């Protein structure tokens, strides 16, 4: 059992980072937003303008989502650079002229340079700076790099990482799953669990119970 509150620790860290970057990179001009964690395939994060609000419609707010599935493979510095990337979208949503949904235009790219992130469709030097899908890389010595160093120096909590991505954990889960097989009686549909390749006889129907795989094959 964790000694701390993981939810509070995570969101306090993200809120702290948002406020810090807002002050250092955007002169404190960005409105607050709703930060969420979403497992969107092939994305480190995304921005959705005016996506959430109160039930009465009295308040509307933007969403910045980060994908926690990538936290382990990336450093906190890299993960929080995605937060700043999405904050540039939020800035453009409120104060600039965004293009069609998802397109990264020249205005956004210029803002990214300003905050110390180099836009790149490949996430590396040499990639295009605009496009429907566009990542970035950190400009060493730039505004973001300096801001992150100061933030980390102030004792920001590290982000939790997803342990299920660990290869050893995957092997253990696979071995545990393989240690038990579900068997079902084709007559009365009673279920039982045993080791793979066990021959089980239903006491009620006196017939051989079928493993899940066998049932699926017969149903085809």
TrEMBL record:
One of its GO terms (biological process) is response to stress. Keywords: Hydrolase, Metalloprotease, Protease. It comes from the Bacteria. It holds the Pfam family SprT-like. GO terms for molecular function: metallopeptidase activity. InterPro entries: SprT-like_domain (IPR006640). Residues 15-116 form the SprT-like domain. This is SprT family zinc-dependent metalloprotease. It comes from Allomesorhizobium camelthorni. The lineage of its organism: Bacteria, Pseudomonadati, Pseudomonadota, Alphaproteobacteria, Hyphomicrobiales.
